[in-house]
Amino acid sequence: MSDVPMPRPDEPLVRVRGLSTRLGGKVIFDALDLDIPRGSITALMGPSGTGKTTLLKHITGQMRPDAGEVWVDGRNVPELGRDALFALRECIGYLFQNSALLTDFDVFENVAFPLRQHARLPEELVRNIVLTKLQAVGLRGAARLLPSELSGGMARRVALARAIVFDPMLILYDEPFVGLDPIALNQVLKLIRTLNQTLGITSVLVAHELSAVRRVADRVHLLANGKIVAAGAPDELARGESDWTKQFFGGEADGPVPFHYPAGDYARELGFDGGAA
Amino acid sequence: MNGRFLRGGYLADALAQVGAAGLFFFSILGALPKSLRYVRETVRQVWFVGAMSLVIIMTCGLFVGMVLALQLYHTLSIFGGTEALGTVVALSLLRELGPVVTALLFAGRAGTSITAEIGLMRATDQLAAMEMMAVDPIAYVIAPRFLAGVIAMPLLACVFNALGIFGGHLVGVTWLGIDNGTFWGNMTANVDLWDDVVNGVWKSLAFGAVVTLIGVFQGYTTPPTSEGVAYATTRTVVFSSIVVLALDFVLTAFLM
Ligand SMILES: Nc1ncnc2c1ncn2[C@@H]1O[C@H](COP(=O)(O)OP(=O)(O)O)[C@@H](O)[C@H]1O
Ligand SMILES: [Mg+2]
């Protein structure tokens, strides 16, 4: 990692330029630009299926775009080879939509997994680090439970403990609040904020819950039709005047995001001939 | 699938799958040096697939040996050569039935469970999570299971053969009354270590490699849905059976 030129501290940690991606014949991103400043919590919002997860996958190199640059900490991810990519990923935490805990291992071993893979540490140190991280998410007492014995919120917190075991510079949260009851949601919310404030971890948050986003995010980017259609502080955006923000934050069923999936003429499909009308 | 078959896309699909499985095989070989770190995982997998298949292998080996002795006794008695029973039972098992039947049983028992396990790891993002933790799933998950299959198959075939010969002895000597000394004496005189026993082991190694390769490949490339995992396990059994029997013919022709 030392052969990489030191990026300037005022430079954004993630800088996306001209990102274009097609998946299965559908345009997902069309020359998308995005900056994520160091130390911030940035929320990505947008209708389902607009490519929020895909964007996170581009940032972590799980998927390569058709064109464009994705700079993370001074490295252009699509150009990285496998080893450089793995080196970069050691500094990135990623919270999957469904936690993705390893079902073979208990909670403790799940959190210890990255440590055991990448560092030859004495068992006592591993134990200390893992217990510290579990304590941080409030699950030290659950260390010997299996993933199948955890509730959704607990699994999410274990995954979070695993994601921060190497003290990453960046954490990507993919829909961390989905399926959580209000208490669990607040616990995860509090953790996201604490990690950002105490460790200065830059955070990217994909979420639909506007009320939750308002309480943690410094900036919100609204993603639709392959572009950022609106960006700003959460409150600013919620008061926004554009059609996009009005529909999205007002929760209107119809608007720039159409209620109807593209379809042919309705009358014709029902068998009424277009000529008769 | 039928529609595709009629349109002729099925053959192209099958060929593409064979090509992809070949490339996957090379990526496993490429990951082997890295997976040396996971010796413990490999040992655990040998234990796992071995223990999983042991009971079915032993039971089937016993019955196959018993049936073989009955049938061959009948045939040999036509020529008045029943004292050769030990030899023909042992040769049939060591050269042919041991490796092949073990491979078919292994595909049904261990191959399917390897496919389902890896397929579910794919569907629940566990493989992607490893990638994100900078751990190569081919080295950590796939290669140890592949190695375990290659190691376990010859061992299981040996168990199958041993139980089969025991079953043949049970029927031939205990039941049909062939002299015990004749049974063993004939067998040990005519079974050659290199020509018969080792040839069988080569076959087993080859079957272990293809069956496990099919199992891990189907699991790794399955669509991440419950339907996808279900189809993938079925394909493991179907493809393994076809490939084992076809490969058996080729190997027999070359090893003879
Ligand atoms: N591997 C893939 N192949 C084809 N289409 C895909 C693939 N992955 C995602 N998509 C499509 O890309 C779009 C964006 O997906 P995703 O990034 O998961 O959306 P979301 O914003 O809900 O997270 C969806 O319409 C999805 O169907
Ligand atoms: Mg998503």
Features:
heterodimer; A: 277 residues; alpha/beta; Rossmann fold; six-stranded mixed sheet; four-stranded antiparallel sheet; 22% strand; B: 256 residues; mainly alpha; 9 helices; elongated; disordered N terminus; binds adenosine-5'-diphosphate; binds magnesium ion
Structure write-up:
The complex is a heterodimer of chains A (about 280) and B (about 260). Chain A has helices at about 50-60, 80-90, 105-120, 125-135, 150-165, 180-200, 210-215, 235-240, 245-250, 265-270, and strands at about 15-25, 25-35, 40-45, 65-70, 75, 90-95, 170-175, 200-205, 220-225, 225-230. Chain A is α/β, with parallel strands linked by helices. In chain A, the strands form two sheets. In chain A, strands 6-7-8-3-9-10 form a six-stranded mixed beta sheet, sandwiched between helices. In chain A, strands 2-1-4-5 form a four-stranded antiparallel beta sheet, covered by helices on one side. Chain A starts with 13 loop residues before the first strand and ends in an 8-residue tail after the last helix. Chain B is mainly α and about 260 residues long. Helix content of chain B is about 90%, strand content about 0%. The two termini of chain B are about 40 Å apart. Chains A and B meet through helix 2 and helix 3 of A and helix 5 of B. The structure holds adenosine-5'-diphosphate and magnesium ion. The site of magnesium ion (MG) has 5 residues of chain A, from helix 1.
Class derived from helix and strand content of chain A: alpha/beta
Number of domains of chain B: 1
Counting DSSP H or I runs of 4 or more residues, the number of helices of chain A is: 10
Helices of chain B, by number, come to: 9
| Average residue pLDDT of chain B | 93
- Global structural class of chain B: mainly alpha
pLDDT < 50 stretches of chain A: none
Bound heterogens, unique: adenosine-5'-diphosphate, magnesium ion
**What's the CATH superfamily of chain A, by name?**
P-loop containing nucleotide triphosphate hydrolases
